[in-house]
Amino acid sequence: MKLSLLFEGAPEIEITGLAMDSRKVKPGSIFFCLKGLEADGHDFAGKAADAGAAAIVHSEPVEKRDGVCYLHRENVMRELNRVCDLFYGSPSRRLTMFGVTGTNGKSTTASIISDIFSAETPCGYMGTIAVRYGNYSRVPTLTTPDQIEVHGDLAEMAEHGMKAAAMEVSSHGLSMGRVDSVDFDCAIFTNLTYDHLDYHKTMENYFEAKKLLFRHMKKDGVAVLNADDEASIEGLKECCACRYVTYGTGVLGSADYMAEDVRLTTEGTAFTLVTKEGVRPVRTNLIALYNIYNLLAAIAAMHECGMPLDKMLPLLEDIPQVDGRMEIIDEGQDFGVIVDYAHTPDGFDKVFEYGDAITKDGGDIIAVFGSAGKRDKVKRKVLGAIAGRHCAQVVVTEEDPRNEKAADIGEVILSGVKESGGSGVFVEDRKTAIEKAIRMAKPGDLVLILGKGDESYMYYGDGRVPWIGDNEAARGALRKLRSNGRGDEIE
Ligand SMILES: CC(=O)N[C@H]1[C@@H](OP(=O)(O)OP(=O)(O)OC[C@H]2O[C@@H](n3ccc(=O)[nH]c3=O)[C@H](O)[C@@H]2O)O[C@H](CO)[C@@H](O)[C@@H]1O[C@H](C)C(=O)N[C@@H](C)C(=O)N[C@H](CCC(=O)O)C(=O)O
Ligand SMILES: Nc1ncnc2c1ncn2[C@@H]1O[C@H](COP(=O)(O)OP(=O)(O)OP(=O)(O)O)[C@@H](O)[C@H]1O
């Protein structure tokens, strides 16, 4: 594409790609100089030129080289968003776009939408679990990647026959403008609880970041709001730039998509769906009440975007397992093992409530988890305290320590466990920790392995290395238990 098509009055130079990181510049790229939290892209304009940048967009003075076209613009971020959309052929306008935000449930809700909506309209998924369309899947860089990746990935989906995409929109992504030029048709809110205050500092700022998705909605779009979420519902109704519908179970009053008479079992859930189209029975293999909220959000979003309930509801009986979310690991053992991505206080509350419900006839809960390094530090002790209240034993372990010491993080978590009267140990190696918990379990117990879900990597230092995944680690530990027995390690 010619530079002149992207910037009025610019020369007819052929552009091969876009970059906001000098290390990703290729010959023919446009490099956008952005000021970040740790660095200023303007300082890398020289490096970008050395790497072959054809044009450099900047707002501050930069080191200049012959043969490079320099474009001075007041707001480089706005230019980046505009150009990403143009360069990739406005992919979000070619797709029915679902954007899911909220503290918990984004991956689950977006994943359900992508799986079920695809029965009528091929729908890709972009978020923490993967970048996925059709039979193709790859590990993502972030939950909501930068604008170049977002538009590039959406274009790739459209080129491979997708007609829709369900994407997770993180609060970081919103406040850093990563989706500013994405044309969402439907914006979905799951819930607002504590997380990410290392970045946002206050819950008000965190909520303001989430509101951006709704404030920037186009007029003919639709928002799907959680009527039962006291922390968000009124604020979102006020700021929404488009019409909205609500979902809920009636705890704070009625909703447009209501689940009544919810019956939870360990195998699945049944409820009555009440909408303006009438009353319908729903059965689903999803377990735990919070998943019914995720499901209601998905039902409302898909229906508002044109999928008939009669077509949709039968498909909900057998929703594909959302990777690493409440994933039951069954190797024929006489106790339960569940791998789940819970890593926030609310997520922990919800998972342990479910754990208590399914072990109420006897049986203890043993949990394995850690907390991420270089991320919210306040929640570490809180997670420990929640686990301590529900578990017979907590095995604290490494969980993306980055450049912190896993043992230091573990110590804080264990202080929370002890404060709430629980008992815990620290085992640094995650695989060994999972094996230990599984060896401790007695018939009827439940082992909950929390925090990493299906993630196939672990962050150490400034990079990430492959990790077999909590589900594989658990399967391996169960097979080992079957062949070797419990050994002498039960404490
Ligand atoms: C805190 C955070 O989100 N930081 C993101 C942010 O970095 P930044 O603003 O600090 O950038 P910076 O390092 O100061 O650099 C400024 C500019 O100079 C450029 N640069 C920098 C160095 C260099 O050699 N050359 C160069 O050109 C950078 O590319 C950038 O454009 O902008 C970068 C470019 O988009 C992101 O890669 C980076 O994400 C980091 C890697 C990250 O880990 N982010 C996490 C916290 C995140 O976003 N998580 C959310 C939430 C997930 C959840 O819900 O749990 C997500 O959506 O994944
Ligand atoms: N609606 C919900 N309310 C509370 N907790 C939930 C809800 N949905 C999921 N959870 C819990 O949060 C965990 C993460 O779920 P999910 O991956 O869907 O959320 P997420 O918002 O995508 O998280 P992240 O952005 O950090 O990836 C689940 O494994 C579960 O323990």
Automatic annotation (TrEMBL):
This is UDP-N-acetylmuramyl-tripeptide synthetase. Carboxylation is probably crucial for Mg(2+) binding and, consequently, for the gamma-phosphate positioning of ATP. The keyword Cell wall biogenesis/degradation applies. Its main location: cytoplasm. Its cofactor is Mg(2+). It is found in: Cytoplasm. Pfam families: Mur_ligase (PF01225), Mur_ligase_C (PF02875), Mur_ligase_M (PF08245). It is an enzyme of class 6 (ligase). It comes from the Bacteria. Residues 324-453 form the Mur ligase C-terminal domain. Pathway: Cell wall biogenesis; peptidoglycan biosynthesis. PANTHER family: MUR LIGASE FAMILY MEMBER, UDP-N-ACETYLMURAMOYL-L-ALANYL-D-GLUTAMATE--2,6-DIAMINOPIMELATE LIGASE MURE HOMOLOG, CHLOROPLASTIC. ATP binds at G102, T103, N104, G105, K106, S107, T108. The lineage of its organism: Bacteria, Bacillati, Bacillota, Clostridia, Peptostreptococcales. The keyword Isomerase does not apply. Catalyzes the addition of an amino acid to the nucleotide precursor UDP-N-acetylmuramoyl-L-alanyl-D-glutamate (UMAG) in the biosynthesis of bacterial cell-wall peptidoglycan. Residues 14-62 form the Mur ligase N-terminal catalytic domain. The modification N6-carboxylysine is found at K210. One of its GO terms (biological process) is cell wall organization. Keywords: ATP-binding, Cell cycle, Cell division, Cell shape, Cell wall biogenesis/degradation, Cytoplasm, Ligase, Magnesium, Nucleotide-binding, Peptidoglycan synthesis. UDP-N-acetyl-alpha-D-muramoyl-L-alanyl-D-glutamate binds at S22, T143, T144, S170, R178. One of its GO terms (cellular component) is cytoplasm.
